[in-house]
Recover the amino acids of this structure.
């Protein structure tokens, strides 16, 4: 069976995403926020994704790694599930090239050496996350086994320094940071997987968040984190060529969890405490990743209050149609516009995070207004979620991935 063809609607969507990304990148270069050599990672990762995804599609068919259509899903043909390994290859290869090549670029070697270990640990742990996801996609794993695998990946990055650092330097403070780091990494890993329910949604949100992180870290002189973020953005933008509706390949659990895990690691590796107050800067990564964070918190509270979950095991195994994209579809949106709407919301939050991090150009009232706008945004999303649940939330064995 051959891979599904890619229609003109997909090409138009890819052009729209590319134009939006080019606008952000171009503005950053013109203003001198991001230097041109940093984009080597973005361009290389995007090019590699375009090269490796077609073989991943072919291999998916050969191995029978397919998501088959049924009455709960939008696709009409079986869709390959090996997008995760393809994204990993593109992102990982580009990041390794940058770690070796761009680290020789003048004074950048010091910046790269400072976080090289953390980035390599993130990449190695991400590869393990993908392996777990591929096994799960092919044969299925019990939730407990998946969780143990994710905790193993978390332990790897924590062993090499990817740990939150904002509490007092006491025993209790250090313990609190470790606990919060585990919750953050595991939570974000699964939050992005929960949102992978429409063509292009998880990859599009990741591209938007990674570009936001790239601009913010470039503004604060974090060259290595900027480059890693651009590599991730490039890999997801290249993948979107085959993932926007109608998708010819899905991320699968392997790809969606990889994206969530990597974004969570970048949020920890990045230094967001360079602004006027540490508390204020803690909001930066929370705002950038606000949509997946909000979605997982909302559905957890909703399901608990409705008596649908009562334990961590229930939380891990319950799969329902009560996520943000499901609610938007119930309100009458088509899948394509719903994906675009959510990604534009992510872009708006990214802009607010940039304003919040800006130093010396905007006064504190503007930053206060940025926080107020973020709150208003989530209040509006809550209204949509409440309106969208009037049709009832169903409990299905699997969420439709497209």
């Amino acid at each position: 069976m051959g891979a599904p063809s890619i229609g003109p609607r997909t090409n138009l969507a890819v052009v729209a995403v590319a134009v939006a990304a080019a606008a952000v990148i171009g503005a950053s270069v013109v203003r001198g926020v991001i230097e041109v050599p940093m984009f080597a990672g973005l361009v290389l990762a995007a090019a590699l994704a375009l090269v490796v995804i077609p073989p991943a599609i072919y291999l998916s068919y050969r191995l029978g790694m397919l998501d088959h259509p049924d009455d709960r899903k939008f696709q009409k043909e079986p869709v390959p599930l090996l997008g995760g390994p393809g994204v990993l290859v593109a992102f990982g290869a580009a990041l390794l090239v940058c770690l070796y090549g761009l680290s020789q670029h003048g004074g950048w070697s010091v910046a790269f050496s400072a976080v090289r270990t953390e980035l390599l640990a993130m990449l190695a742990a991400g590869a393990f996350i993908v392996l777990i996801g591929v096994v799960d996609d092919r044969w299925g794993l019990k939730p407990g086994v998946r969780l143990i695998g994710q905790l193993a990946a978390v332990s790897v990055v924590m062993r090499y320094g990817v740990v939150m650092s904002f509490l007092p330097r006491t025993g209790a403070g250090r313990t609190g940071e470790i606990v919060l780091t585990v919750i953050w990494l595991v939570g974000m890993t699964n939050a992005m997987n929960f949102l992978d329910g429409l063509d292009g949604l998880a990859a599009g949100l990741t591209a938007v968040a990674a570009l936001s992180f790239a601009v913010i870290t470039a503004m604060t002189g974090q060259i290595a984190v900027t480059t890693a973020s651009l590599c991730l953005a490039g890999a997801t933008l290249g993948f979107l060529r085959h993932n926007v509706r109608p998708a010819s390949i899905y991320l699968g659990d392997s790809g969606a969890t990889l994206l969530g895990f990597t974004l969570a690691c970048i949020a920890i590796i990045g230094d967001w405490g360079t602004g006027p107050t540490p508390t204020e800067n803690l909001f930066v990564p929370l705002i950038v990743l606000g949509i997946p964070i909000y979605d997982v918190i909302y559905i957890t509270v909703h399901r608990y209050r409705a008596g649908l979950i009562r334990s961590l095991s229930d939380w891990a195994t319950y799969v329902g149609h009560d996520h943000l994209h499901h609610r938007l579809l119930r309100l009458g949106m088509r899948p394509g516009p719903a994906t675009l709407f959510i990604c534009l919301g992510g872009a708006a939050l990214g802009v607010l995070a940039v304003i919040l991090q800006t130093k010396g150009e905007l006064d504190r009232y503007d930053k206060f207004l940025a926080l107020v706008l973020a709150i208003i945004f989530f209040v509006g999303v809550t209204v949509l979620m409440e309106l969208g649940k009037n049709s009832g939330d169903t409990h299905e064995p699997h969420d439709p991935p497209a």
The first strand starts at residue 66 and ends at 67. Residues 1-15, 27-33, 392-402 have pLDDT under 50 and may be disordered. The chain has one domain: 8-391. DSSP finds 15 helices and two strands in the chain.
